Amino acid sequence: MNKHSMSVLVAATNDLDMYSLSVAFAEKGISNIDQVEVDDQQIVKSVVKHGYDIVVLDVSQLSLSQAESLLHTVAVKTGAQIVAIGDNPEIAFYRSMVAAGACEYVLNPIDSNAFATTEFAASKADASQGKVISVVGAKGGAGASTIAANLARELVTRGESVTVTDMDFATGDLDLQFNVQGNTALVEMLQYPERLEPVVYERSGIKVADNLMLFTGYLPLDSAPFWPEKSALDHFRRFTLKHSDTLVLDLPSFSMRDQIGFSSLAQADVRILVVEPTLASIRNTGQILAALESTATVRDGKLNLIVVNHTKSDKASLISCNDVQRALGVTVDVAIPYAPNHFLVKESLGRSMLNGNRKVSRAFEQLASKVNGDVAIKRKRWLRGA
Length: 386
Description:
By secondary structure, the protein is an alpha/beta fold. It is 36% helix and 17% strand. It is elongated, with a radius of gyration of 24 Å.
């Protein structure tokens, strides 16, 4: 991250020499500085909402236990780099601040070269090697949730820890896909992101299997509609990537009309677009691709994958994979075969699609390989289907 674009939140009393602090940061090329009172809730809310990279905590009027508690709370709930400023020159106090989560402890008044040896960089959350995969259907009923669930299962078999999030708070069904009981926890976490901490996170998630966690926020149908703020969703994403290698977002198709929903797709490392072999689905997919193209940069490194889900028999549609490719002007990456005996029987509820049908399991293997950038296995021909 360019240091000139980094931002600092200072939580301080009036006794802190803000001018000297500003000069010290200016020596590091950092000039975007805001200030709040020394209050842990206000600090966390500000960081979650505005995404500050560095938090400066004035602990000069706090006892050692109070300072340690404040540092630990801010570090755990925000993931930001923390600088502690105090008036205690003892080395034991310095070590306690570092142990509590501070990357640096300096004395007030602050020397202009106080941060000469301090290396500020992107927060650990933003520097995570984890990836975000967003899955969305071009229109409702395209099978995006089924694909998201089974892709997650396939990634787990490859040794990844995966978190799946159902972003449809009204009619989502990922709990049925995994045969578990959903809850409302995700809505509560996104409504109050400043309360997010490891204990809350662990208790809110639904453990589907080892290394596979599900988050849902299913609201009663008579409740008021809910959609999170972007800052809350970004904070949840960063927090999740501290606990999982991969975050899979199952986005409802209607969210593509919303700026926050579309940004959740656009900002993902891998964007999976699920298209049915129908004219309406192909048209909507083309619109989404055009919108993604308008937001793309030369080196954004984002990967778009087109998945044709054959939800109908050959007799029900005359549209093939080649027809979809020609209409969209892009290659179809994976085709999920039409397999009613595999998907549409009551025994399939909560069952992994990776077993029982070789063509289906092979399709998910191919999808996982493309997601991870593995060399794809060449096939002699397309599955015509649809």
